[in-house]
Design brief:
By secondary structure, this protein is α/β, with parallel strands linked by helices. The chain has nine helices and eleven strands. It has two domains: about 100 residues, Translation factors (Elongation Factor Tu (Ef-tu), domain 3), CATH 2.40.30.10; about 150 residues, Rossmann fold, CATH 3.40.50. The strands form two sheets. The protein has a six-stranded antiparallel beta sheet with strand order 4-3-6-1-2-5. Strand 10, helix 9 and strand 11 form a beta-alpha-beta unit. The longest helix has 13 residues. The mean pLDDT is about 95. The structure holds flavin-adenine dinucleotide and NADP nicotinamide-adenine-dinucleotide phosphate. The site of flavin-adenine dinucleotide has 26 residues, from strand 4, strand 5, helix 2 and strand 11. Keywords: FAD, Flavoprotein, NADP, Oxidoreductase.
Length: about 270
């Protein structure tokens, strides 16, 4: 049988099934999942929209949903004059988006050596791969405890993560796996809140250990980490982790921590 014309033209089209706006610069959305797409929780793919000239405008996006989910979820910035997100922020349920089904990335369990305590360290939309990994059963099967540190300038920017963590604890399947293993540590840096400060500072000063009642400092025998933020953040966190004796790993050479960029560039 012949394929419908639109699929012949672009076999990578998926349909938007849900859109949620969190702030004036952040939104999340869900799309249909190609039946053939297999990925590891924490990986990213290229997604996009057709530009005015018909050519696709594609960008890297972490898949925010876990590998077992029937749909795919994404968590996105809205860059006012960004080639993709100036358009993507207006998508509505039922509309098509382009998805290239070639998942890749280093924020995967395979790239870490076995450990006892896993740290997810994210700023801004760098939370996206952890939205996937927090809902991944392997995370909870492999580690005794997981600390999710997420830092944004303002409290509103933490809301997507806050709600996801709350829903996790209520989830009948994942909630049971998590038990009391999850420690969630959201902080702000430019708005007053219950917990404040940069992730780098809170790790080196020991504040996060004191606030959560955890054994510190970081120790390469016990601790593993996954990092996702701006280039500057990633660089500074890597220095902190190396300072505690942790070594960077990759898919081909698993070690103590792994890093992925949340975006390229340093100014909107
Ligand atoms: C491996 C990887 C994974 C990514 N995953 C995500 C994701 O899950 N969600 C997401 O929103 N973006 C993600 N990005 C960034 C994404 O690829 C695009 O840059 C973003 O969608 C903006 O596209 P644009 O065409 O509108 O603007 P671009 O021309 O791509 O970017 C314009 C400028 O906006 C700023 N910017 C871009 N993305 C962000 C961001 N996420 N947070 C803060 N500032 C930003 C940068 O200063 C950049 O120079 C990822 C990037 C990489 C490399
Ligand atoms: N967030 C907003 O409300 C907002 C609004 C308009 C435009 N923008 C622009 O959007 C771009 C991205 O902004 P963003 O807020 O998503 O990301 P960001 O600037 O990377 O900041 C996100 C969080 O990471 C922290 N951080 C930044 N660099 C760090 C480092 N080297 N080490 C440790 N922590 C670090 C920030 O703390 P500090 O606050 O201490 O830097 C902040 O809490 C920026 O160019 C910004 O000017 C942001």
């Amino acid at each position: 049988m012949n394929a419908p014309v639109s699929l012949k033209v672009n076999p990578d089209l998926q349909t938007v099934t849900q859109v949620t706006h969190w702030t004036d610069r952040l939104f999340s959305f869900r799309v249909t999942r190609p039946q053939s797409l297999r990925f590891r929780s924490g990986e990213f793919v290229m997604i996009g929209l057709a530009g005015d000239n018909g050519k696709p405008i594609l960008r890297a996006y972490s898949i925010a949903s876990p590998a077992w989910d029937e749909e795919l979820e994404f968590y996105s910035i809205k860059v006012p004059d960004g080639p993709l997100t100036s358009r993507l922020q207006h998508i509505e349920v039922g509309q098509p988006i382009i998805l290239r089904p070639k998942p890749v990335g280093t924020l995967v369990h395979d790239a870490l050596k076995p450990g006892k305590r896993l740290w997810f360290l994210a700023t801004g939309t760098g939370f996206a791969p952890f939205a996937s990994l927090l809902r991944e059963p392997e995370t909870w099967e492999k580690y005794d405890s997981v600390v999710m540190m997420h830092t944004c300038r303002e409290a509103g920017e933490l809301e997507y993560g806050r709600q996801l963590v709350a829903d996790l604890r209520d989830d009948p399947v994942i909630g049971e796996l998590i038990g009391d293993k999850l420690q969630y540590y959201p902080t702000t840096t430019r708005e007053q809140g219950p917990f404040m400060g940069r992730i780098t500072d809170n790790l080196t000063s020991g504040k996060v250990f004191a606030d959560l009642g955890l054994e510190g400092p970081l120790d390469p025998v016990r601790d593993r980490a996954m990092v996702c933020g701006s280039l500057a953040f990633n660089k500074d966190v890597a220095a902190v982790l190396e300072g505690f004796g942790l070594e960077e790993g990759s898919n081909s050479a698993p070690a103590d921590y792994v890093i992925e960029k949340a975006f390229v560039g340093d100014g909107v």
